[in-house]
Design a protein that fits this description.
Length: about 210
DNA sequence: CGGCTGATGGACT
DNA sequence: GTCCATCAGCCGA
């Protein structure tokens, strides 16, 4: 299935109204931009993970809505940002209808616009290809934090002293060279990692995060 | 480049 | 208490 054009605002709901795995795969190659204070960082998505609702043992939504995951249960086209490991923010795009709790975790990307700002935000990055080569790295390069949880794509929201606008454009011709495999850190009772090969990445792309299965 | 390990705090049982 | 949808720093090659 070819990628649909996403150059309209707000996003067409039908683009998200299908299996979260198809949405995840079609997000590969898409361009996500985040603008604050007249400065924009854009990443070309190279790695994502699909997470289902209550039926998915690896999903934050598996035990129903809480204060933390509330925005996951909103309708499609919003950003779900959560805090993990005591220091990192990670960003997802909500894909399901209201109440479902499905979303796509943005795991890695290539910075294609706003390189200077991305470098400023990630001074510890060893090279430009590491600027967004991991979920927390990507969120940091884009400037996304808990302030932006629930933000609607294509919309704007007050965030601290400034504002944030997030926009998404699909790859013009789609991505054909994609691969998939087990998600990170998803195993144990209720479903092994192998049962959910819902991690997708662009084959051979140097910005894909260095994940090794246990 | 790749492997190993400590850091660090909120959510949830 | 325990569990994280992780990363930076350090080391060796």
């Amino acid at each position: 299935m070819p990628n649909l054009s996403l150059d309209v605002t707000p996003l067409p709901a039908e683009w998200f109204a299908r299996d979260v795995n198809e949405v995840a795969r079609d997000l590969l190659g898409a361009e996500l931009s985040a603008t604050t204070a007249e400065e924009t960082v854009t990443v070309r998505l190279t790695e994502v993970e699909a997470y289902g609702g209550a039926e998915d043992p690896g999903s934050h939504a598996r035990r129903g809505p809480t204060a933390r995951n509330a925005s996951m249960f909103a309708s499609a086209g919003r950003v779900y940002v959560y805090f993990t490991y005591g220091m990192h923010w990670c960003a997802n795009l909500v894909t399901g209808p209201e109440g479902e709790g499905s979303a796509v975790l943005l795991r890695a990307g290539e910075v294609i616009e706003g390189l200077e700002l991305a470098r400023r935000r990630r001074p510890s990055s060893r090279s430009d290809r590491d600027l967004a080569s991991g979920p927390a790295r990507l969120a940091k390069a884009l400037g996304l934090t808990g302030e932006h949880d629930g933000l609607e794509i294509g919309g704007a929201a007050a965030a601290g002293t400034g504002s944030m606008v997030v926009e998404l454009r699909a790859a013009p011709a789609g991505v054909t060279a994609w691969e998939r495999g087990p998600r990170t850190g998803v195993s144990g009772p209720g479903g092994s990692a192998a049962e959910f090969p819902w991690r997708y990445w662009i084959a051979g792309d140097p910005t894909v995060s260095r994940y090794r299965a246990a």
